[in-house]
Amino acid sequence: MKVLLLGGYGVFGERLARLLVRDGHAVTIAGRDLGAAERLATEIGAGALRMDRAGALDGLAGFEVVIDAAGPFHAYGGDPYRLPRAAITAGVHYLDLCDDADFCTGITALDDAARAAGVCVISGLSSVPALSSAAVTALAGEERPRVIDTAILPGNRSPRGRSVMRSILSQAGRPMAVWRGGTWEEVPGWSSPARYTLPGGTRRQGWMIEVPDLRLFPAHFGAGTVVFRAGLELAVMRYGLAAFAMLRRVVPVPISGPVLAVFKGLADLLAPFGSGRGAMSVTVITGRERRRWRLLAEDGDGPFIPAIAARALLRRDALPAGARPALGVVTLAEAEAAMRDLQVRTERDTVPFMPIFEAVLGESFAALPAPIRQTHVTADKSRWQGRSEVMRGAGLWPRLLAALVRFPPASPDVEVEVTKTVTRRGETWERRFGTRRFRSHLIPTRAGMTERFGPFTFLLGLRVAGEELLYPVRSGRVGPIPMPRWLLPVSEAREHVRDGRFHFDVSLRAPITGALIVRYRGWLVAGLPGDPAAPPVRY
Q1: Residue 538, pLDDT score
Q2: How far apart, in whole angstroms, are the C-alpha atoms of residue 142 and residue 131?
Q3: Is residue 538 classed exposed, middle or buried when 0-12, 13-18 and 19+ CB atoms within 10 A define those classes?
Q4: Helix (H, G, I), strand (E, B) or coil at 473
Q5: Are 110 and 191 in contact (CB under 8 A)?
Q6: DSSP-derived 3-state class of residue 295
Q7: Sequence ranges of the chain with CATH classification 2.40.128
Q8: How far apart are CA 379 and CA 375, in angstroms?
Q9: Which residues neighbour 370 within 8 Å (Cβ) at sequence distance 6 or greater?
Q10: Of 310, 405, 437, 460, which residue has the fewest beta carbons closer than 10 angstroms?
């Protein structure tokens, strides 16, 4: 095919140009810098053309496909779809390597015009959402994902384009919407780090940033949680960017030319360090399984990965008419076939998914009534809502201990919400009684379940009695110091079902005296889900 590649001498555009020439396409490299276009064209056997998306676009008619690999797409100004509209008018297919959520999701506004012209208009033919959605589709099969967790982790020696750097810097510290536990929540860009294991056992850290997946996947796949992270190989760069993100949460530092130049200069100074190994990880939790697809690119071939989906699509005999984001436009098999001439290896694995309460209780977990089991099967985040009665003890020590842990004040009837979040080691439970909140952290161990309230950590002897779940306290410590048994608080906590609904009854009494510290009892049901197709308009 006759392909016009705008930004074809950039980091990812150059890789796509090489792949398309290798596949036999007639490629013309275009951009504002004709000299750069000509130098690459001469090297790989392509044509060259000066073109600016903001300038004259009457030359599109001489091509079958135009591909925008320039970016940054978030900075396309007041008329961001000028190029795809011009392509539709000229009867030319339009593809791009966009990773900006607004631009990618908004491309559907051109669907009617694209269909009328019989041309294909697809945005996001990059690692996200094209390759990531292909992996999710293959991993999930016919099942609905509970969790979709994706990460892109480039090696430090991979080239850094100014467009990509500007995109990441512009997101640092900026609020973004993430679908977690069936609702939209706000998190700052470049936050909430997590570790990922790569093929061969190497571990990398990723940080949350915004990509089209966060907007598109919740409704498309019906997922309960969708998260995406990107990483930098060197710790000094990761944490330096995290510090910059924290600063931008307080001071809205614009990503101007000088700011970009400073970060680009620092990145170039550190370029000799680290490796050229880039990676991508896609994890899907469906039912009782955790399924992973992982990719590792060696010898600096990582920057080819964002070009793979476009290469795979252009290997087809025909392109589909209409305008849409690149969701499911290529299969994982097609993408992997398009990588075979690169130093890239992929692998898939499946391991059981076991919630922490099932891990501790073993076979007895299955004997619990369904409403109790359901509250203890959290794949990432879950929310439970209901009502509660709260009783507080009198006396100095009960008041001091309750205040230290932030137990709620006494109330005959108060709204209660419990949010459970999976952590690297266990779960964090945040309980809200009215406006009062307190947290505990649960970690499964060989000895049982530990639960930490502030400085106090207790070992719980979880057990099933009939159709109830009991939480007796076996031992405790304050910080690292073990507590004598005579100083342990007397805990009576049980979960049961009444009228088909989950109920809880928790009482805590002071050691020695048995004086009541706090007692709260009530019921919970699953929180009402949000609309996965309607993220906040501005966040």
Answers
A1: 55
A2: 18
A3: exposed
A4: strand
A5: no
A6: strand
A7: 356-526
A8: 11
A9: none
A10: 437
Helices (H), 314-387: 332-337, 356-361, 370-375
Q: What's the CATH fold of domain 127-300+344-351? A: Dihydrodipicolinate Reductase; domain 2 (3.30.360)
Q: Where in the chain is the domain with CATH 3.40.50.720?
A: 2-123
Question: In this structure, what token pair is assigned to residue 371?
Answer: 């409403």
Tell me 485's DSSP state. Answer: G
Collapsed DSSP state (helix, strand, coil) of residue 73: helix
Please give the single-letter amino acid code of residue 367.
A
The CA distance from 336 to 413, in Å, is 58
Q: Which residues, listed in sequence order, are joined to residue 122 by a DSSP beta bridge?
A: 95, 324
Residue stretches of the chain with pLDDT short of 50? 539
Write down the pLDDT at residue 404: 76
The structure tokens listed for 114 are 């694209």
**What class has domain 2-123?**
alpha beta
Contact partners, residue 466, CB within 8 Å, separation at least 6? none
Q: Dump pLDDT digits (tens) for 41-81.
A: 999 999 999 998 888 898 899 999 999 999 778 778 889 99
Residue 53's pLDDT is 85
The tokens of 439 are what?
């947290």
Using CA atoms, how far apart are residues 223 and 411, in angstroms rounded to an integer?
37
DSSP letters for 521-535: EEEEEEPPP--TT--
Q: How many Å from the N-terminal Cα to the C-terminal Cα in the chain?
A: 42
- What span, in angstroms and rounded, lies between the C-alpha atoms of 63 and 71? 21
Do residues 142 and 114 touch, judged by C-beta distance below 8 A? no
Cα 264 to Cα 254: distance, rounded to the nearest angstrom: 15
Q: What is the DSSP string of 134-202?
A: HHHHHHHTTSPPSEEEEEEE--TTS---HHHHHHHHHHBT-EEEEEETTEEEEEEBSEEEEEEEPTTS-
Q: Angle at CA 428, nearest 5°, toward 190 and 185?
A: 45
Q: Residue 276: which region, alpha, beta or left (left: phi > 0; alpha: psi -120 to 50)? A: alpha
Element housing 402 (H / E): helix 396-405
| 128, 212 Cβ separation under 8 angstroms | yes
Q: Under CATH, which number does the domain 356-526 receive? A: 2.40.128
What pLDDT score does 539 carry? 43
**∠ CA 524-528-532, rounded to 5°:** 145
Residue type at position 523: W
**Which tokens hold the place of 513?**
């005296």
- The pTM (predicted TM-score) of the whole model is 0.92
The first and second tokens of residue 65, run together, are 């496909």
